[in-house]
């Protein structure tokens, strides 16, 4: 499937091929995806069931290391949108970038439309979802992607109830954020705010460059398990409570 899409993209630039399957099955088409990146073929990969949130299918079907591995691959856009707005924004960029393949990692579980997301802001890769601080100096910055952005947002609400100034950041596309001017990056992740917490239902590998040496990353650095999604999130510590506790330990 991946090789066919490469052929379509390279032979007929007017066609925009996309292929879709479970995110974990990118292991079977990684060679074709790498060739797409190397050949500058604008293939769009719509990959669902992107985390332990898929539930009872268990660890064989639950991607853990896949997000970080594609973020490490040159010339490929790795998107993990949190809701309909971000999905539309990611797809818009994927269609426009004809010399770069794009991966959209989508959840199995239903996700709410989050206040503060927008189609346009996805172009920045990372952007401020909510913030009650003054002078670009929040007490803590919470960073999330995909289904865990909702968790970060709710954790931010809890911390604000306790009088903390909290910035919540959506990090939907790392590669796009890396392309932004330094001034924009500083406006989102000010260098003098070291209290940062990231949350993503996948490997924490690579998050150090976002949260810094004094920050904390909440994720999954082991294989998953077979159980309902809600139970798995609790067992693996992908929770509002975990984010709040991590934030308090840094403030």
Automatic annotation (TrEMBL):
It holds the Pfam family Transket_pyr. This is transketolase. Belongs to the transketolase family. Keywords: Magnesium, Metal-binding, Thiamine pyrophosphate, Transferase. It is an enzyme of class 2 (transferase). Residues 1-113 form the Transketolase-like pyrimidine-binding domain. One of its GO terms (cellular component) is chloroplast stroma. Its EC number is 2.2.1.1. CDD domains: TPP_PYR_DXS_TK_like. It comes from the Eukaryota. One of its GO terms (molecular function) is transketolase activity. Its cofactor is Mg(2+); thiamine diphosphate. Homodimer. GO terms for biological process: pentose-phosphate shunt.
